[in-house]
Amino acid sequence: MHRTLGIDLGTTNSVTAWMREGVPVVLRNRDGGQATPSAVGVDPLGTLLVGQEALNWRSAQPGSVITEVKRLIGRRWDDDLVQKALATRPADAPPVREGPDGTVQVRLGTHWLSPVQVSAVLLRRLRKDAEDAAGVPFRRAVITVPAYFAEPQIAAVREAGRLAGFHVARVVQEPTAAAHAFGVRTGEDGLKEYATVLVFDLGGGTFDVSLLTIGPGHFSVAGLGGDNLLGGADFDAVLDGYLRDRLGGREPNGEGDAFRIRNAAERAKIELSGQDASEVVLSPLGRQGGSWAGTVRRAEFEQLLTGHLRRMRETVEQVLTEYSATPEDVQRVLLVGGSTLVPAVRRGLQDLFGMDTVSDAVDPMTAVAHGAAVEAGLLDTLDCPSETCTREGIPVDSDACPACATPLLGPATVDCPGCHVPAPEATAACPVCAADLSGLRAAAPAVALVTCPECGRDDNPATAAVCGDCDTALDTGGLKCPGCDMINAPGLSACSNCGSDFGTALAEQVTAQPIGMELRDGTLKVLFPGGTPYPTDWHRIDDLAIRGDNGTAVRFNLWEGRHLRSAQRNDFCGGFLHEQPEGLRGDLPLTLYVRLDADRTIALKYRIGSGDEHGARLRRSVVSASVGRKAAALRAGYATFLDTWRQELTHAELDALTEIADDLAALGRGEPVSRSLDGFLDTARDTLDLCTRARSAQVGAWLISRGGPGLLAPTLLDDLRKAGEAVKDARETMDTEAMRTATERVETLWPGIDPAVRTALYAIRFAEQDSYPATLRTEVLAARDALRSAMASGDRAAQDTQLVRLGRLGEQGRGQFAEDRDLTTPTSVLPSQR
């Protein structure tokens, strides 16, 4: 039997839990704690530090420890939320920068990692500790996310889980998971048969409010609200600023001062949840090693929180209003997240909903992880994760998809010794830092043994579904009945023995914000309004069209957010490019079908005009829209160059340029490429420029050295010939440095050539190649013959006359080239409203 790990991947702390004998059990980490700080760092020797050991090291080297990376995951550098999050980081936090693909990168030791990779490092440690504690391998996971996470953030969390070696069976909203943990059963404790429950989830970095409807076998999310930049870390920040003000103008510029002040603020916040005052001592402080001591009172702290508390209450009231509910309609308020321990937070909720309505029956620090484990126990089927397979409803005990053989279990992983990002066992080299991984093997957890309740056999592996002697069913990860204590099979929300309701079921969740498609005018065509329950059935949209304008592709871009007038101000969900090389002409109707699956993944089907129906697999691009546009424009330049000069290019040039052009085309479609994007566009632009110059230099050197005798100095012609041959040799092997040197040599000789002679020789060459219209070609060839006659007779005046004549004809030919050449490049178009 494959066991699934429930993971609360928190901003400040992370917790794991699993279903053990029918109840959710938190798995302690290697330090014996229930929660693992979401901190990742390295020491001076490059040793990985995770959790409390990373926080301990932060006092010595704050810049080497990454915290609160969840606020950055799945977001782009130019996202307003990212810039706001970075503005609240301590001054001595690890360096961050914009990645070459427009995302965020954080430095861990000597390496720059994405938030996904940092989260994978943390998840890998959580997995290892959980396996050691439970004695079973966890190759599947249910991971929770804030309810207000958009599609890109959900996709990023799923990718982090995959990197850590999990098959991510489900991504669940944190408030929904927490409600699982509370096990609210209607008909008990005065609750109505169908109860309205509000989950107030205030963690370290995010704030969510969910309004749920719960009944026998029914569990649905009715409304959502939240703030991805509000949590305990922000409480720490206001206390940090308050302490700095209390220093009386003293500049805290000593090594480690920023860490000590932020650490003292966090400690004071925690103490003020249980007492009226907190004594703060800052020492050493400043470059001279002074100290400061003072008292922070709860009333002062609560005054600092006035703005945050107001924002929370406004969010709660907004959710109630959108659902047409009043505080009196809510039968339970469930407190989730460590920051709900702040008395002012609880007092505000009690004032709004009443003292008896607010419940803290479950530890708010572990409620979400408990709920993730319960969600795992409610799952009896899986969906195939393959991009090309749509198989659903696969039995949860399957190892692989029966349709396409895609594994439904995560691989065994190893930690890279260089950058620490996990990679599948037997990977030859780390895909991040290229470190050798060939000799590394994953360590298997110590196997736990269980006793059969029927025959007493005590050496059954914990992963076994039945006893090895008597075939009695063992614990398979389902829920325990609160009535008769029977441990049920996974997937049941009511007891198979006595029929008792478990007080929870797989939730019907809703979208937090509108999801729509970008239109040609830049607006957002809403496909799924905010509050749409999912999974959904396919539904058809008929009011769209494609206005061809000679385009050769249709681009489907989907965004999530409330900015309906400007699609690109929202979060990018994914894109798809339908290519139609024969071109799009006129106005064509677009028929679109859309649906959301259980993980809020968007599926599309479409038909353009009377054409065939197509399926679209959206790509959640790691490529920013600006990078994609630049890549597409540069790809057009490559296409023009290759189409124009293909017959004149060497094999080496053709291979290199085609490879770069293919990668540019992929970036233009929003797809990732195997090469690093760091400087790629600049390199690609430079390569095209060099090849253009080199081809021109070689042709020009050959042309002038061949047609120049009698018109130019012999020494100049000999130098041109040698330089042109050097360019040719370098082009044969695509030796870019040699090409650059030889090309620059030709270009330094160019000013020594009489412009009239150069223009005349080029005009003659184009005419001889039949590149000019017939009339112009005849004139140029006649002028050529006259020039040769004048050269043979030594008539300098006649030579000058013909050179001037050829110059005029060459200019005329250049103008005709501009008129005749089709400079249009393939373009993509966005759908329009009919």
From TrEMBL:
Origin superkingdom:
Bacteria
Listed Pfam families: HSP70
Q: Which UniProt keywords apply?
A: ATP-binding, Chaperone, Nucleotide-binding, Phosphoprotein, Stress response
- Renumbered to this chain, region (Disordered) spans 810-834
The cross-references to SUPFAM superfamilies, in alphabetical order and at most eight, read: Actin-like ATPase domain, Heat shock protein 70kD (HSP70), peptide-binding domain
Taxonomy of origin reads: Bacteria, Bacillati, Actinomycetota, Actinomycetes, Kitasatosporales
> Would you tell me the protein name for this molecule?
Hsp70 family protein
Q: Which organism is it from?
A: Streptomyces roseolus
Which InterPro entries does this one have?
ATPase_NBD (IPR043129), Heat_shock_70_CS (IPR018181), HSP70_peptide-bd_sf (IPR029047), Hsp_70_fam (IPR013126)
Q: Which PANTHER family match?
A: HEAT SHOCK PROTEIN 70KDA (PTHR19375)
Family note: Belongs to the heat shock protein 70 family.
Q: According to the UniProt entry, which residue ranges have a biased composition of type Polar residues?
A: 824-834
